[in-house]
Amino acid sequence: MTAFDEMHGFTTHTEEANVRVAYEGLRTWLQDTPADLLATRRSQAELFFRRIGITFAVYGEAEMSERLIPFDIIPRVLMKTEWEGVERGLRQRVNALNAFLRDVYGPRECIRAGVVPAELIYRNPYYRLEMVGRPVPHGIYVHMAGIDLVRVDEGTFYVLEDNVRTPSGVSYMLENREVMMRLFPNLFTAHRVAPVETYPDALLATMRSVAPSSAGRDPTVVLLTPGQFNSAFYEHSFLADKLGVELVEGSDLFVTDDVVYMRTTDGPKRVDVIYRRIDDDFLDPLVFRPDSILGVPGLMSAYEAGNVTLANAVGTGVADDKAIYSYMPEIIRFFLGEEPILGNVPTWRCREKEALSYVLDHLGELVVKEVNGSGGYGMLVGPHASSKELDLFRRKLKHAPDNFIAQPTLALSTCPTFVASGVAPRHIDLRPFVLTGTDGVRIVPGGLTRVALKEGSLVVNSSQGGGTKDTWVLDA
Fold this sequence. Notes:
Layout: H1 24-32, H2 35-52, E1 55-57, E2 66-68, E3 71-79, H3 80-104, H4 109-112, H5 118-122, E4 144-151, E5 157-163, H6 170-183, H7 185-189, H8 199-209, E6 221-224, H9 233-243, E7 246-248, E8 253-256, E9 259-262, E10 269-270, E11 273-276, H10 299-304, E12 309-311, H11 322-325, H12 328-336, E13 343-344, E14 348-349, H13 353-361, E15 366-370, E16 379-381, H14 387-399, E17 404-408, E18 414-419, E19 422-431, E20 433-437, E21 440-443, E22 448-451, E23 467-474
Parallel strand pairs: 3-23, 5-13, 6-7, 6-11, 11-12
Antiparallel strand pairs: 1-2, 4-5, 4-20, 8-9, 9-10, 14-17, 15-16, 15-17, 18-19, 19-22, 20-21, 22-23
Helix pairs in contact: 2-6, 3-12
Pfam families: CP_ATPgrasp_2
Organism: Chelatococcus asaccharovorans
Protein name: Putative circularly permuted ATP-grasp superfamily protein
């Protein structure tokens, strides 16, 4: 299976090969830069990340509870015209996701019309009965989305996943850019790279815009974290600092008369918007898990009274489901009356008898994923799996087919990457970050490019050994 190369197209990876317009300047830079200088810069980048503490926790690894996400110093480059098409598709996708969520917690017209099977909604573990018939502030459920994209040819991007619960990774997008600008100022001078540094301002503006209408004053925004032992705690503290808002844990907040307050040295301060990085189950022990010490007792009462906005809204996880993902083209057509701009990866729903039969017969050719899985866990990459792994998944599929979907093994595009042997192509994806407030949709140009550092690997997740790259969108 031949993969599209971001630098060379479908040609071979040689100096004489055609180079796509976006990469002409980068090709010259790579030719003129000695390998030992690239290695030095990579070491400097790693030292920078260690100094600022940009790590993530790895659960279940006793010998190393935290580690760096490897950073590749060769950027991924997109032309403005390429990005504009992606951006239109992202806006459409997130608008459809919000419309879908308003519907499944409201009139449920998509169920009555047969667009989405009722059982996929009602049996979904992230569908919250507590939210049925309860409108959210300004009708916005997904304030922040991380939409994973993969590229297969010159003009085709597919959506791989919709991350709308508590999407992460934006801190790496911002820090990757800062490191590149420090290490390679001359390379930036030679390119007109669209900025991503505006993201914190855009995020704060989005948060302020969705404050309850009754606020009637400058709204107070806080970022709610599970605490320092969470795998994404660095990002939580980083974003709170960039936004200029308080980083709080559940014990820092309390509810009185359906209003949320923050404890401060000057006394209680009313909170209007909570950018929460805590899953639904742990938000309020009076409504969800009674054993949770991470949330705020009474928070849901304040939320239902319309006195506080939770971003993202409670119950968005139903749209994060990989089985629901397979219906997104129909969802876009139903709610927006438009054809999808960004395609879905063809998907077999193993809950369907014919699809299950096909998947079992072609298991060695397919990628199989858990419907509610994330982080690259619980998945099978058929062409790279052992016979033992194939047998294990065959049993899983027969035992609980509803828990799985399957997709063809896509030839994810590759990008030049600096590895131990030098510069070589490695498979990549892209996670742009989409913000939705009352003043519209905001998307900074680019996003987080994740790279599978192992030769031939298609798994880009940091938890599975993947790394990241800076993503450049050229203004001209």
